[in-house]
Amino acid sequence: MRKFKYKFQMYRNLQANIANIYNEARRAADELNIPQELRGRFGLTGAISGCPAPLRDDILHAGEAGATEVIPLAKLVDEIRELVKDVYGDDFDAAPASTCEAGLWVTFDSLFSPPMMGRGDNYRSRYIAPYEKHMHHQGGYGRPFPPRFKDFLADRGSTAGELGFYGKRQNNLDTVIVPLAGAWYDVHGIKYHPVPLLTNVDPEESIEILSQYADIHAPFLAGITSLGYETPGYGYGAKDEEGTPVLQKYLSELAHSYDLPYVIDNAWGLPFVGASPLKNGADVIVYSMDKATGAATSGLIIGREEYMVPIRRAMGLHGDRYGTTASYGRAAYVTYDPGKEALLTQIQALKVLRDRPQVLTQPVDDLERIIKEEFAQIQLPDHLKDGILISKSYNSTAVEVNYEKTWQNREMGIPIFSIEDMYAGTNLFQTGLSQMGVIPTVAYDGNIYISPGLGTCDSKGQLIEENTRYAIKALVRLIEIVCRYAGITE
């Protein structure tokens, strides 16, 4: 294959050869003997909301058994609160929601956006968001500042404009976006766009920059947010002796120095086992309970009681007007009601995390072993193989395959697809897997996040090794195919 002088030429050639790549991918699936009955029914993650994993037996039973009983929903929410307090203590509280995004929305609106009632003009407020991955979630609820970020969500999502991601912006709220020290924000992809490459993030230098921004915007600041993940590809590879990302602890300290809340988006994360507010100092953590945790589709907000009061009030959970300790009523965000069956499955999932966390951690250990074994056989030059970093995360019940260091010294590496590629359908590490009968995972920004669950686990939640190996072998072969058309291998 022809080698390219500039990276945009490489991506242009990949775009021109999409049909050829797909043809080779389909042939590779046959060569790998992926069973026909498995194709389209298994994949690299069960943690994507558009195609969630089947429920474990215990989760399914809890939902079915409770569905036949008469149970006040306030009682179920109180049981969730009790489980949270069992693990984090009485200073913490909880509020279930219909999805993680619903949880983020009600949290940002409750804690960050200015009040709308009362006389006089409304003021503006701001929150700080490090420039990291998935910015359309934790960074999408205000108008971007500085202005160079004003259109960075323009093409993201299925729908553009006011009915797309822009429609999430809260009233008179700004997002101060702060690049991180040591990160690269190079332009990559067929849908050519800046991508956050975060394995070299320096937490000490980054918090100095973040502190400067906080000082500049101090009169308007309402809070600080970030992701809650723990892997190098998300910028959180530097950890303390307890395994807590140092940058998250710094962000908490910075927020608290201004008496502001620190809100963590831990959508693809576990309560209890994963990112702990007792260690990282978060005031509120928001989860997607169907992603890593294994409950039915729903979200959960966990936080310090001081901040949970307005959030629970907005959800109609914080007591009746005539004076009760809890309710299941109607308030601003009644539309985010998760429903009875979701609450039942959340309770069971939290009980397992509290009492038998190995149900979720053991498959991660098994998955890591398989991924390392299969990637050890990848047919790439040594300098590219050396740039692949494999890290496991109990928080996300996932194994991260990060390859941004294959571009070390700005030499051509494994093609990096932007999140815009995902929405445009030009991320070949996702669309190519679909051609092989493998449901893909989050695989943009030089980062592939793999987790068990989608046809790769049994009904007890434990890994099926044969199915998992088929999926990982398909990914390895697809990387080899794409690298040939990128001109970086023969």
UniProtKB/TrEMBL annotation:
UniProt entry keywords in alphabetical sequence: Transferase
One Gene Ontology term of the molecular function aspect: transferase activity
Highest taxon of the lineage: Bacteria
Protein known as: Pyridoxal phosphate-dependent transferase
Organism the protein comes from: Lucifera butyrica
Lineage: Bacteria, Bacillati, Bacillota, Negativicutes, Veillonellales
